[in-house]
Amino acid sequence: MDITNKILTDSLNSSNPELSQTIALRINQMRQWAQSLRESQSEQDPMWQKAIMMIDYQCRCAKQHLQGIHQLPGVTGESNELWLEPRGKTAIIIGPSMPVKAITATLTATLISGNQAILFIHETFQPYTNGLIEQIKNRFAPPDAIELCNYQDWSKNIKDPEIKMVCIAAPKDEIINANRILSTREGEIIPLLYDSDEKLPQFSKDSFCIHFNTEKVCTINTTAIGGNASLLEISSAKV
User: Which of 89, 143, 165, 176 has its C-alpha lying 20 to 30 A from 189's C-alpha?
Assistant: First the structure.
């Protein structure tokens, strides 16, 4: 059984090295970003305060859902391990009618999961967008982790095959349009996360960050390892 456990551990480590440490590092970086914003932005602006609180909230949710390897039930003699890995380049679209915390909710979940963020944020948010990006880029996120694009270009850019996910906070008609555009893409079907309510009920779910990841499963037949060894031992004893 010791040999079986070692094989399991080695297999998981080679598939997903230092998973918990990597997620913990990203969470710590996002918390530092939030603290930097607290120190640099006005406490009198409720939009800023809610945006920063959303970063903290997404960090708590990520710590709960994204860290570690999860044991899954299986048939006798089978070991199943599940973990989450980055989904890939994520397009974030924030329309003019949404609160600033929609930006921090989606950007935090994207970066904590290890994805690259392509931002399409309406120009009405420019003072907030500049402040957010200035604080995080090259300090609490890799240089190539965030790309800021013109808001009007989102409809043609989400067709890019490198985009693996779209997250949009906007009126319902824009969400419907985004869904229609994605349906015409060639190749793989990618997920569309959306919220049209200014209170952000979808983005505020504690499981929101999970959607920015894909599931990876490692299944090992422990019976084949331990069982065959036992049979060989019995056979040898009889001889």
Answer: 143
Tell me 202's DSSP state. T
- 148-170: pLDDT as tens digits: 999 999 999 999 999 999 999 99
Q: Work out whether strand 213-221 and strand 192-195 pair parallel, antiparallel, or are unpaired.
A: unpaired
pTM for this entry: 0.84
Number of domains in the chain: 1
- What domain range is 12 assigned to? 2-238
Q: How far is CA 192 from the centre of its chain?
A: 13
CATH code of residue 109: 3.40.605.10
CA–chain centroid gap for 197, Å, is: 22
CA distance 42 to 171: 29
3-state secondary structure of 62: helix
| pLDDT tens string 80-113 | 888 889 999 999 999 999 999 999 999 999 999 9
